[in-house]
Amino acid sequence: MDKKYLFEESPVRKAVITLAIPTVISQLITVIYNIADTFFIGQLDDPVQVAAATVAMPPFIFLTGIANLFGIGGASLISRDLGGNHPERAKNVSAFAVWGGILTAFLYGMAFMVIRPVLLPLMGTTPETYELTYQYVFYTVTLGAVPTVLSTILAHLVRTEGYAKQASLGLTMGGILNIILDPLMIFGLHMQIQGAALATLLSNCAACIYFLVLMRKNRKNLCIRIHPRDFTLKKQIPREVLVVGLPSFVMTLMSFFSNVTLNQLVAGYSSEAVAGMGIAKKVDMVGFAVAQGMTQGVLALIGYNYAAGNRERMGKTIRIALFYSAGLALAGSVLLYLFAAPLSGIFIDNGETIQYSQRFIRILCLSLPLSSCIMMAVTVFQATGKKLPPLILSLCRKGGLDVPFMLLYHFLGGVYGIAWATPTADVLTALLSAALFFPYWKKLKKTMES
Prior knowledge:
Blueprint: H1 3-8, H2 12-42, H3 47-83, H4 87-123, H5 130-142, H6 145-160, H7 164-188, H8 193-217, H9 237-267, H10 271-308, H11 311-338, H12 340-347, H13 351-364, H14 368-383, H15 388-400, H16 402-419, H17 421-449
Helix pairs in contact: 2-3, 2-7, 2-8, 2-10, 2-11, 3-4, 3-5, 3-6, 3-9, 3-10, 4-5, 4-6, 4-9, 5-8, 6-7, 6-8, 7-8, 9-15, 9-16, 10-11, 10-13, 10-14, 11-14, 12-13, 14-15, 14-17, 15-17, 16-17
């Protein structure tokens, strides 16, 4: 479909579906291949290895924050530049996003390697999980930081120019490759948890190669560039990219601290409890991925029409995307609650771990519809270049509100009380997002009428 027609003239519902569905699929595939690690490691029927993979996830997820800092920030600015007819600046933005992300990812990977003896125990490792956790993060973080971040940034940038299907295909290909390599590495080569980590590294490298080839083949139709000569620190590009991308980065950073706190508290019970929480968090990520995919998919459409002055089309995009996102999240919440027990049993044949997991899933899934509304509010603010509101919401949802409630509920309700901190934080953040969004929406509506 012609890019200009898609963003400016096609029926809004069709444009939302065209951009959002491939993004949702790619997000789901990304979650599925993260789940695949836990699934195949779980087939070893060793709760200690599942617990080690759970503790190792926060530093790996932090890479998503780096990718979103440059990827979402760059995508938002590029969409506004294209809507405002500034293609040359869009080239400079894309080059800054790519090279800034590469450098930051490399430095993070090296820093983690140096401070791991101090950091891993703080993350919740025990003497029996320390070495296994280190083996996992060596491949996924120390060696895998750059390809993991780069593939995600390129997906964001390609999607901004209307290539949502191609972006989805690249991430999907990486996910499928990971799923294929996991059993080969874990069981075929007898590498166990190291095999899962190596499979993740290789799949992200393959996704990077795909995007680089895609961009070269379509270079005449794409404004985005990655050549160093297009890199610049001028035109206020670094400030615009980093400030707009900061809320997504902060959200991941706070999620990092939230998960570390969660792991430390749960680790005080048993490896089975940590493994059960790890399985529950992975399953809950499926529902969250749908909401995230819907919002990231329409970010470019919202930003483009905002910059082009077509506020009526922008408003319709927001309403339709929110309806689909909240509806799918509600359906996912119901399904996860009903099938928590059989889903837990898929991952591991350990009765105690399954008992923990199904209880955790039923608690965590309750707030999925609220998460979709929060994500849409954050996306609208980011797409229109607002800085402070999405940052406030990002600080509150993870780390800001849930950590104090974890400590309180842990004291009041034990191990299962800890899990109730997430729904509590989501309810409060949803109320705050409504308080921030509706006055801003009222202001935009006045602009539409005038």
